[in-house]
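Hey, can you fold this?
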Amino acid sequence: MKFNKILITFLLLLITSKNYSQKEKTNSETRQFIDNAEITQINKDWNIKAEFKSGIGEILSFFPVEAIDLKSKNKIKSLQMDMTVGNGYFKSSWIDLDEVNEFILFIEEYVVPNLKDKTEKKQSTTYIFNSREITFSFYIEKSTRRISIYLKDNGNTDNEHYFWTESQVNKIPELLTMLKEIK
């Protein structure tokens, strides 16, 4: 009986620690770095930026940042994304540099070659890139093309606050150029 209690306690601790470690990995290393530092400095480079604006005034900006833990002097570089949508909702998310490489590959291989593609009637094609903190979607239906960006918190996608545009799809090559500059 005592052995069973010890075994059950051990299994519960193991499950709890595994669930906690999985949640930690769902956010970017940059967010974890910022959250774990007591005092942080974030340097933003506004000279290298890609920006998208929707027809209703929503804004999505990508730019490189360097976060510094001022106590330990440790630093981390990444891509920050600021999004302002519906009724002034604002959020920042980060794409770690290792994910930036994948993002570049995604845009080069699946988005840019298909910027002028069309689909047949009653057909569509969607290309999706998932990082730890964002989902970037490129959608084609007939001659309409749209990008949508959804943010994630702890791995959960926020379907209420997202950015989308059809009129700014032609700016994707500018985003690609900016991403290559920060690598």
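Oh, and this one too while you're at it.
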Amino acid sequence: MTEIIETVETVETVETDAGPARVTWHRAKKAERAEKAEQKARLVLAVSHGAGGGIEARDLRALAAGLPAHGVTVALVEQPWRVAGKKLAPAPKTLDVGWRGLWPALARPGLPVVAGGRSAGARVACRTAAELGAHAVLALSFPLHPPGRPEKSRADELLGAGVPTLVVQGGNDPFGRPEEFPQGSYELVEVPYGDHGFAVPKRAPIDQDQALAVITAGVLTWVSSLG
């Protein structure tokens, strides 16, 4: 019999010292055995947005759509500044405060939590992983340096995460192309032709759906390898 999988989405508001934050949970369950949904998840992948957008980012949505069927609960995290409707992200220390305040809610299911995010959210995950006890870090479009300023490297944040780390980086990301990243113990998946938002040009030999498939497949393979 073919097993029917459906995604269950719930939204939770979490109070933090930086203001109310929001978590949109994407869980998978067997339709005929809904009461066993929580038992089937192996881990929680918590991913936050960057400084210029929200959880509608194509890579975050692709992960939320694709991973729950494989035993990964995906929590899309909105920082307090986004919930408040502000257009500009606050200082990194304030972003860290918001993430720390969210952590108890992310850990509540009692599963290992992979801390993740895109761009600025990836930096937050790296900076706080060790202190919060994250199982691993997923860094999507890690902003290795400001565009055109390779001397302003943020490699120390990535290399200092202290837990298993996967970087997923667009081949044409102006914030750091894959070949610019320093050697380290992290793993790296390249999304060919992708920019900072993983958009690929129309003239590229792969289309947008294929680019997103590279992301979801790479992340799934990596989380499956985590002990």
